[in-house]
């Protein structure tokens, strides 16, 4: 008999130092009432996450409370973990930008160190990522990036690893600046300068590619083995039973109110199963690239290793609309950022005024009291 529980996977979440709790429950039990199912369906739009059409977990409005471990697990008559992730939320990273030229495939020399922590049976190594896809296709504005950073990993197999560091074996490699790294080791690595991420950017050119719609024949096999053509389907049309092409993800549109001088991270969603680059566009300033971001925003903004647009602080001049596109110009995200003046200096003035008024009241009270006692 087929195993009915084989594909019953659900997502679970665990904050650092806590147990896993369920995030999704797509496989109902017989004891669950109809009202529970209706309530769960109606609450989907209010949830902080959703499930994609390939059962991927999509988080909304990520903040520090979302930091922790995520896993896709089958707990129906088995305990099978399919995927496990650690999400770490941070407002800023120590990014050092490097610029290279077309065709230069050598890894740049960076002042990052490799070594071993003998007592902890851990090692730290410097590794470079693969070059990203070109940010534009069929355009001379294309850029691609590569990041170089320090990673920490065990030096021995699981049975020989110290108990307090066994969790590091759950992940392929852990950045040296991650909170997964024990604090005392993280401090040592920071003193070495291994907390920095070196981001190399270079110009590139890549032709746009698209899938060609193919005309298909609908055939039928006869009793004697002859194949008979029943119909011709033009490109883009399908019959029942065909695997349809994947739909593009819906555009994520956000309107955010930001206080002046507040930091902000604008994240661009990725096209799942499609290896494509991304680029950013500002309604006021035009294309935002590695080559001009510091000129446009006077070192207030930068790109991280995942091409997220990071603002160290927003000013009134940054009140704008920002758009994220794939390399073949598919719109992925829009951000309507509205910056309001930070009234902190007004609060300070009000506090000073209250203090002056209170001091004047005390002075007058003391003068009146001294006159009464004379």
Automatic annotation (TrEMBL):
Entry-linked SUPFAM superfamilies: Immunoglobulin
Topological category with respect to the lipid bilayer: Single-pass type I membrane protein
Compartmental location: Membrane
Keywords: Glycoprotein, Membrane, Signal, Transmembrane, Transmembrane helix
Source species, domain of life: Eukaryota
Transmembrane domains' residue ranges: 354-373
InterPro entries the record matches: FAM187A/B, Ig-like_dom_sf
GO cellular component, one term: membrane
Family: Belongs to the FAM187 family.
Full protein name: Ig-like domain-containing protein
């Amino acid at each position: 008999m087929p195993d009915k529980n084989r594909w019953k996977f659900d997502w679970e979440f665990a904050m650092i130092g806590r147990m896993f709790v369920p995030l999704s429950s797509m496989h109902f039990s017989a004891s669950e009432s109809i009202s529970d199912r209706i309530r769960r369906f109606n609450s989907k739009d209010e949830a902080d996450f959703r499930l994609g059409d390939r059962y991927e977990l999509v988080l909304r409005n990520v903040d520090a409370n979302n930091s922790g471990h995520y896993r896709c697990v089958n707990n129906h008559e088995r305990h099978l973990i399919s995927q496990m992730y650690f999400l770490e939320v941070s407002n800023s990273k120590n990014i050092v930008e490097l610029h290279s030229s077309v065709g230069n495939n050598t890894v740049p020399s960076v002042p990052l160190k490799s070594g071993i922590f003998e007592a902890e049976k851990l090692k730290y190594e410097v590794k470079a990522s693969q070059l990203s896809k070109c940010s534009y296709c069929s355009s001379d504005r294309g850029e691609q990036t590569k990041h170089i950073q320090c990673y920490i990993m065990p030096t021995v197999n699981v049975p020989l690893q110290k108990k307090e560091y066994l969790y590091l074996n759950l992940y392929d490699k852990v950045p040296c600046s991650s909170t997964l790294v024990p604090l005392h080791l993280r401090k040592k690595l920071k003193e070495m300068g291994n907390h920095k991420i070196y981001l190399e950017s270079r110009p590139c050119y890549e032709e746009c590619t698209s899938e060609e719609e193919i005309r298909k024949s609908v055939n039928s096999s006869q009793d004697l083995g002859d194949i008979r053509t029943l119909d011709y389907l033009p490109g883009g049309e399908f019959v029942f039973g065909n695997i349809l092409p994947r739909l593009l993800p819906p555009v994520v549109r956000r309107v955010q109110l930001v206080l002046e001088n507040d930091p902000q991270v604008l994240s661009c969603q990725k096209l799942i199963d499609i290896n494509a680059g991304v680029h950013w566009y500002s309604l006021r300033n035009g294309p935002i690239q590695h080559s001009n971001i510091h000129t446009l925003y006077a070192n207030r903004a930068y790109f991280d290793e995942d091409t997220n647009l990071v603002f160290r602080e927003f000013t009134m001049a940054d009140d704008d609309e920002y758009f994220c596109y794939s390399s073949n110009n598919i719109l992925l995200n829009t951000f309507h950022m509205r910056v309001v003046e930070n009234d902190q200096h007004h609060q300070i003035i009000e506090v000073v005024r209250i203090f002056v008024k209170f001091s004047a009241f005390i002075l007058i009270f003391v003068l009146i009291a001294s006159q009464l006692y004379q």
